[in-house]
Amino acid sequence: MKAWEIERENILKAVPCYEEDDNETIWEESSSGMETAQDEMAKMYWHSQVPGSRAPESICLASIQAIENRGYIVKGGTDLIKEGYEAYDRNDIVRLHELMYAVFEAVYNAEKDEDHPYWKQKFYDSFEELKKAVDYPEDFNVPIDETYLEKTYAGWLSQIIGGAYGTCIEGYTGENIKKKYGEVDRYIRKPNTYNDDITYELALLLAYEKYGKNTTSKNISDEWMVRIPMGWSAEDFALKNLKVGIVPPESGTFHNPFNEWIGAQMRGVILGQLYPGNIEKAAEAAYMDACISHARNGILGEVFNAMMASYAFVENDIRKIIRNCIELIPADSEYGSVIRFAYEQCQTHEDYYSAWLPCEEKYKNYNWIHVYPNACAQIIGLWYGNGDFNRTISACGGCGQDVDCNAAQIMTIIGIINGPESIPEYWKKPIGDELDTYVRGLKKISIKELAKRTSEVARNLK
Asked: Contact at 8 Å (CB) between 175 and 313?
């Protein structure tokens, strides 16, 4: 049947329903809940706090910052922000909605600044272009055996520990974290595993369980839509695009000012686990996943983390892994220049914080959720931690920025290298074996079971 025929059949069956009173109540009940939800979201776009750390955020402000980082000029943007803050303070919800839409319209219509340094780099807008620029090593043919399973379990456990550790300090500078807590080498408070970052990796795993070697960006994004009820920044905008039929890679590029933020980088290591020792396939799969919500340098962030995790199954020297993977990111991309700058600081400073300060200064015009400062924090944490669990996680936390995303990713790599026995008990015991998420159909899962399922997928990808 055609659509009109189905609709015609429905209306022919419909019988008028008489009610003595007006059904205004039904309209009120139907609209009030939606209105409240939309009003709360508008307020959150202007002023919100990170759930775990209470760090301040403003998506409206950040959208202007993000698009200007990408070489555009938003005319009148700061004036709109000032007006929006004033409307928020007086709780003028109508004006707040009006200004929110005005901000996003201004961002969408931003003018290209031809003289901006962003446009001087080379862009890698397909994996084929990226592959031509670098020489990936041959597949190391890692067997999917008990050793692999143990390393994968250690990787997942370390990722969950890193996320739990960083959740309560994300969104702050290293200086302010140190003033408040000193050197953060323990959980600041009782940890929990509830974290939004891991949800996208779980959705990806579910897609690979269904489709195996044939998995596509579309398959993964379909899991996003049915499994993940909400996102933030790049993922939020991508989900909106997906739900109106804009599929990858357009879902990551259409009206998405945040597509060079950390959201793809924060989910890269799972591809290294699915393709252990196969650096090229890990990179290709990461590119495919990243383009759902990101573009260009945002995609390279996920590729970088996927390659480091893949290397961790065959190389125990973390500094060698860093060097090798930096070489596999083109130097003429901005992301390539960022990670090389961080690497250079590691060669010229004795301690992690001295190496971090030039990075913080150089990339100070980028939001704390942008991929650039966080790529620096990852490299510095890994380099100065030099394979030690405690030193790595505390150096990562000491840099500040998006700590839960950074710690979760780099601690996965350390866990893969060293195995579960290397993780101190005071990190493991509060976590136990249960992962809590908000992924539909997967709200509670054993971490050991998660490792087994990852192992099965990896075996099927061989």
From this structure: no
Q: What are 325-363's pLDDT values in tens digits? A: 999 999 999 999 999 999 999 999 999 999 999 999 999
Interacting residues of 65 by C-beta distance below 8 A, sequence separation 6+: 365, 366, 367
- pLDDT more than 90, % of the chain: 93
Alpha helices in 275-402 (DSSP H): 279-290, 297-311, 318-327, 334-348, 352-362, 371-385, 389-399
Structure tokens at 208: 């690979």
| Residues 39, 25 contacting (CB under 8 angstroms) | no
Distance (Å, whole) CA 332 – CA 124? 10
CB of 186 closer than 8 Å to CB of 423 = no
| Contact assessment for residue 372 and residue 366, using Cβ atoms and an 8 Å cutoff | yes
CB 319 within 8 A of CB 383: yes
Beta bridge partners of 79: none
CA distance 139 to 152: 18
Using DSSP, state whether 49 is helix, strand or coil: strand
Structure tokens at 387: 């394979």
- The CA-atom distances, in angstroms, between 190 and each of 164, 392, 429 are 9, 20, 11
3-state secondary structure of 11: helix
Sequence-ordered strand ranges (E) for 175-300: none
Cα 262 to Cα 231: distance, rounded to the nearest angstrom: 13
DSSP secondary structure, 68-108, as one string = HHTTEE-TTHHHHHHHHHHHHHTT-HHHHHHHHHHHHHHHH
Q: At what angle do helices 403-418 and 371-385 cross, to 10 degrees?
A: 40
Q: How many CB atoms lie within 10 A of CB 186?
A: 14
CA distance 35 to 443: 28
121-177 tens-digit pLDDT: 999 999 999 999 999 999 999 999 999 999 999 999 999 999 999 999 999 999 999
For residues 164 and 431, is the Cβ–Cβ distance under 8 A? yes
Question: What gap in Å lies between CA 257 and CA 69, rounded to an integer?
Answer: 10
DSSP state of 122: P
Half-sphere exposure of 78 (CA within 13 A, CB side): 2
Model pTM score: 0.95
What would the mean pLDDT of 207-218 be, rounded to a whole number? 98
C-alpha–C-alpha distance, residues 403 and 397, integer Å? 6
Number of continuous H segments (helices) and E segments (strands) in the chain: 23, 8
Virtual CA dihedral for 262, 263, 268, 274, nearest 10 degrees?
A: 180
Q: Which residues pair with 173 in a beta bridge?
A: 400
What backbone torsions phi and psi does residue 136 show, to the nearest 5 degrees?
-75, 145
Report the length, in residues, of the chain: 462
